[in-house]
Specification:
Number of helices: 3
Shape: elongated
Strand order of the largest sheet: 1-2
Order of helices and strands: HEEHH
Oligomer: single chain
């Protein structure tokens, strides 16, 4: 039991420190402005006469949120409707594409039928002659 007391004290101290850091981060989050992106502070380094490097940090000032840019939509001369010539051209192109796809399907179907027809033609006489040549009875 006496060995566990120092471990418990260390664990409590660790959790207390973690909890205090968590509270600090939560406080930072509450004060942060989410509407504006966070900018990194720019640093300028100067060398003094004594040879030491001095750093001056410029902290960017947040812009006022009172001024909001309003964008008005700019419309071109497009009214949103197609002219009669464009509609006719579009319909003609759709019909041509439909005809092409139908013709491609017909051609594919014809090729399949030709292949099946070639497989169906079978010459029994020729098959018997070739089998007799390959399997000679007088070996």
């Amino acid at each position: 039991m006496e060995k566990f007391i120092p471990m418990i004290v260390v664990a409590v101290a660790f959790f207390y420190k973690a909890y205090s850091n968590f509270k600090k981060e939560q406080q930072k989050v509450r004060t942060r402005n989410f509407k504006q992106p966070v900018k990194q502070a720019s640093e300028t380094r100067q060398v003094s006469s004594s040879g030491k490097t001095m750093t001056n940090r410029e902290v960017p000032k947040p812009k006022s949120t009172a001024q909001k840019k309003v964008f008005s939509p700019v419309y071109n001369d497009f009214a949103g409707a197609l002219t009669e010539e464009e509609l006719a051209r579009k319909k003609r192109n759709e019909r041509q594409q439909a005809e092409r796809s139908k013709q491609a399907q017909i051609n594919a179907h014809k090729l399949n039928e030709e292949r099946l027809h070639e497989a169906e033609t079978f010459d029994l006489r020729d098959a018997v002659i070739k089998a007799a040549i390959l399997e000679r009875p007088y070996r």
